[in-house]
Amino acid sequence: MSFPRLRCIALLALAPLLAACENSAVAYSIEGKEHALTLLREQPYFWSDEVTQYIVAARLPQCQKKVRIHPGRTTMADIEVFDAGYQMWALHQGARWYLASTESCQVQDWDNAGDAPPGALVGRFRLKDGAPEFEAVPVPSAGG
Questions:
Q1: Which residues form the signal peptide (predicted)?
Q2: The 106-109 sheet, strands edge to edge
Q3: Labelling 49: which of 17, 21, 75, 97 has CA 20 to 30 A away?
Q4: What H or E segment, with its residue span, contains residue 131?
Q5: What are the residues whose beta carbons fall under 8 Å from the beta carbon of 109, sequence distance 6 or more?
């Protein structure tokens, strides 16, 4: 068997392993496509079950900031998103809380001592059919 043929077989054997790496982005659109919170998840190595996570706070053109948050796992835990005031949201994943502001363009850890949400749940980043998605909480209709 020739060397080029062996190399081709080796690359084909590695392809499923490389395809197992996660590289995804999903957004919670607040006011159109220019105002959003986006969850980015990157798994650089197929042998690791740890996934690097980022939150991007964006209100273009004034704000766009990507902040690394605590790593997740390949089996993603939901990240709940709560309204926390004017252009501010609280994000809750497992035991961790974060505050994201598109007014001050910041994302930071939050020591929520009472562990109570600061406002209404607006939705959650979750895994559906193997891919992250944002699931919004249905808004009650007026009059009932």
A1: 1-27
A2: 106-109, 96-101, 88-93, 79-83, 121-128, 131-136
A3: 97
A4: strand 131-136
A5: 69, 96, 97, 98
**125/64 Cα distance (integer angstroms):** 19
Question: Which two three-digit tokens encode residue 28?
Answer: 């919670």
pTM of the model: 0.81
For the chain, the C-alpha Rg in angstroms (whole number) is: 19
Residue positions counted in the chain: 144
Give the number of other CB atoms < 10 A from CB of residue 99. 19
Parse the chain into domains and list their residue ranges: 20-136
94: left (phi over 0), alpha (psi -120 to 50) or beta: left
